[in-house]
Amino acid sequence: MLRHAFRCYQTTTGNFMMKELSKKPLIVVLGATGTGKSQLAVDLATRFDGEIINGDAMQMYDGLPIVTNKITLEEQQGIPHHLLGFIALESEPWNVGLFKKKASKIIEEIRSRGRLPILVGGTHYYTQSLLFEDTLVEIGSAEETPPSLEVAAPERTFAILEGPIEDIIQKLREVDPVMAERWHPNERRKLRRSLEIYLTTGKRASDIYAEQKRHKRRMSNSGSETAIHGETTTKDDPTLLFWVHSDSDVLKKRLDDRVDKMVQTGLLDEVKAMGSFLERQKERGASVDLSRGIWVSIGWKEFEEYLTALKSGTCSAEELEKLYALSVEKTQIATRQYAKYQIRWIRRKLIKALAEAGKLENLYLLDATDVSLWTTNASMPAIDITKKLLDGEALPQPQGFSDAAQKLLTPVLDDELKETDFRQECETCHVTCVAEHQWLGHLKSRRHRALERKKIKNAANGRSRKIDHSSNNTEIP
C-alpha cells in the first residue's frame, strides 16, 4: 500500500490543504469519453487544493470547444487547468514525447506551490508515458510514436507518404511485411507512419518495437524495478489512478445524446469554420496534413462529405438533409467506437503494465453509470481514498468496490486478451468475433458493408431536421 504521503489539514470551508511535501503524490483520472472524468478532476481539485493537467490530445487545440468537448470555464469552477486550448490549428501537432516533457515540468511547478497535481484525459498513452519510465507504446498514429522517431514534415521528402494507400501498402510490404500485415488497409495513418519510420530511420518499425520488448524482458529478468515512476514520480512516491467507468449500454445512449446536443449547440458551425480555415491555408500554399492533429478529431471527417455537397450547390434540400443526418450518425458511431478503444487501452495496456509493476492496487474503478448517484458512487469514494492517501492511512482494496471492479481490475493472461478482450459484436449484422483478425475480416465483408450502408440510410431517412443550409460565416481567426 501507499503510505506516509502528504499530511493535510481541513479548512473552515471543508477543503483540504497540504502542508508537508515529503512525498510527491500524483492523481490520475482516466476512462472512456462521456463518463465524467473532467467533473471528478474538478471535484478532487476543489477539495484538495489541486491544479489540473489536461491529458487529452484534441483538447490542447485552441478554439473548437464543441468538436473537442472541452470543459467550459463555468465547469472549471476557477480551478487552474494546464495544457488546455493553447495549440493553434496551424501549429505542428504534439507527440507523446513533447507532452511528457511539458506535463512533467508543469507537475513539478504545481508541487512547488504546495498544491496537488491532477492529470485527467482520455489520451491514455499520454497518461501512461508519465507513469512509466520504460513505456512501450505501439504505433497507432503520428502522435503515438516515441519521440526518438519523430521527424519534421517527412512528406516534404518522401512523396510516397502522400500518395495512394495502395502504393504505401505495397512499399511497406517490401520493407516491413510484419507491419504491413498488422494494420487494416483502411488504417492509412498507421500504415503511413510505419513506412515513414523506415524511410526516415532506415530501420523497420517492427524491429524497433521487437527490441523494446526484448529490453523490457531483460529488465524484468534482471529484477530491475518497474514500479510506477518516471520524470514525475519515483518508485516511492504515491500515485492514485481513478478509472471513471459506465455500463456500456448506458454509455452508448449517453454518447448518442451528447452528439445530438453537440449538433444543437453549434457543432456544424465549428466544422464549417475548420473547412474555411483549411481553404485559407491552401490558398496561401500551406500544406495541411489531414491525417494528424485536430483533423482526426471526431466530427470533422464525419461531416466532410456533407460540407462538400453543401459547397457545391448541386444537391437538393432533401439530399442535403439526408447527408446531414448521415453525418450525425457517423459521428455517433465514431464516438462509440472511440469509447471502446479507450476502455480497450486501459484493459490491455495500462492494467497489464500496472500488474507487471506490482501496482495494480493503485487503480480504483468508480461507477458513473447512474449520474444521479454521482456523488455517492464516484465523487465521495474518490475523495475518501485521496484523503487516506494524503493522510498516510491504509487504502482499501480496489477490487472490493463493486462487481465491475472485481471483473475489470483483474489482470488477464495474454491468451485471454487475444480472445476475450478482442471480443467484438457487430450491432448491424448481429455477429460476434472473438479475435481481431476475424473482426477486421468481418468489417471488410460485402455483407457487413451492405447492411451498414442500409442501416445508415434508414437512419438518415428517419430523421426530420430543419437545417439551415445557407453558408455560415463563422471562421477561425
Shape-level CATH architecture of one domain: 3-Layer(aba) Sandwich
Terminal CA distance: 51 Å
Global geometry:
globular
Q: Per DSSP, what share of the residues sits in E-state strands of 2 or more residues?
A: 5-15%
- Average pLDDT works out at 81
Derived structural class = alpha/beta
CATH class category name of one domain: Alpha Beta
Tally the beta strands: 10
If you had to describe this structure to a student in words, what would you say it looks like?
GO terms for molecular function: ATP binding; tRNA dimethylallyltransferase activity. Keywords: ATP-binding, Cytoplasm, Nucleotide-binding, Transferase, tRNA processing. Residues 454-477 are annotated as: Disordered. Its EC number is 2.5.1.75. It catalyses: adenosine(37) in tRNA + dimethylallyl diphosphate = N(6)-dimethylallyladenosine(37) in tRNA + diphosphate. Helices cover 49% and strands 9% of the residues. The chain is α/β, with parallel strands linked by helices. It is globular. Strands 5-4-6-3-7-8 form a six-stranded parallel β-sheet, with helices on both faces. A two-stranded antiparallel ribbon has the order 1-2. It contains 17 helices and ten strands. Helix 3 (96-112) packs across helix 4 (124-131) and helix 10 (267-283) packs across helix 11 (300-312). 36% of the residues are buried. The model is unreliable at 1-7, 17-21, 136-157 and 414-421 (pLDDT under 50). The longest helix is centred in the C-terminal third of the chain and has 40 residues, at 317-356. Among the domains are: 8-143 and 211-247 and 347-412, Rossmann fold (3-Layer(aba) Sandwich); 144-210, Histone, subunit A. The termini are far apart.
